[in-house]
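Good morning,

Both structures are done.
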Amino acid sequence: PGRKQIFRRRNLDGIVQGDRLGLMTEMTSVAASLPGQSASEFPLEELPLLKQVMKNGQRVSEPETPETIAQRTRQSVNTLPMAVRSIQHPRELSVQPSKALQALTQQTQHRIQTHTLMGDRA
């Protein structure tokens, strides 16, 4: 449920450590940490990946040139760990749902179950 955003977690060297799927309204975390590690042991920054390109059926900015897209893609791939970029047996990049998204999902499931039970009684 809800509008989503992907937050890319990178260490201080700029290497991607994983992604966090969250709600569009969530803020990025400059001191995020992986589960089981404190932020001081493994400091990370998060950057939102999704950008609005359309609003009410209209573009909100000029389209990127193919050269710009290619350059951005090259830079993005270069920040992935080598194990993820490996051709043979690549490691998966972890994607963690945010606490806010998990809470909204549970609330929505509860509403659906309640609505379904109420409908069964009618």
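Second structure follows.
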Amino acid sequence: MILFLNRDVEKHSGFFVHVVYITSSNGWYSFALITLTKLYHSDANTNVNGNCNNRHTTNKKRQQKNTNVNIDVKVKDKILKPINEVFNAIINPEKLSNFFISRASGPVKEGETITWYFDDVGRQLPVIVKTVKDNELIIFDWAASGIKAQVDIVFTAIDSISTSITITEKSFQFDKEGLSKALQQTQGWTDFICSMKAFLYCGINLRNGKTKG
């Protein structure tokens, strides 16, 4: 149940960053709408009539600045299961295949490169596992969006029967393609957490029924 919306506004690299969180009855729900608004200012000289010189140069500078801004995708949620169960659901392919993948070449293990298979949509992805800390952190590289990105999954025990999970995928370029990919991955990780909950709470695999295309 949605209780209220909370908006944060932060100045970052010449942009206003608006982050709208949707709050639910059990903590922060796993969705964030991120928008960036350009802070326009003139780098050009102005004459006494207020006319702006070197406008073309200024626009070019603005375009160059845009290429230096990256977007990170972040979702956070509370799962009503002990931290070891949540952590194991991701590193153990027998568990992961019940809500996310079809199968895997091996478990999530630090220093290994494994393959995740999504047979229902005809895809497979190499996953380069960089860091694994039991019940704390998983870091890996992959290219699910079509570009290489790093995924950080952070686990925090709230109490003995509930866990906070935060997933960050970074970074995406601040342009039309990058924004599209960031929104795509936000949706994907939100679906990931919802599907994990369905499996951990009820033993339901929400990927069943999905088909290629």
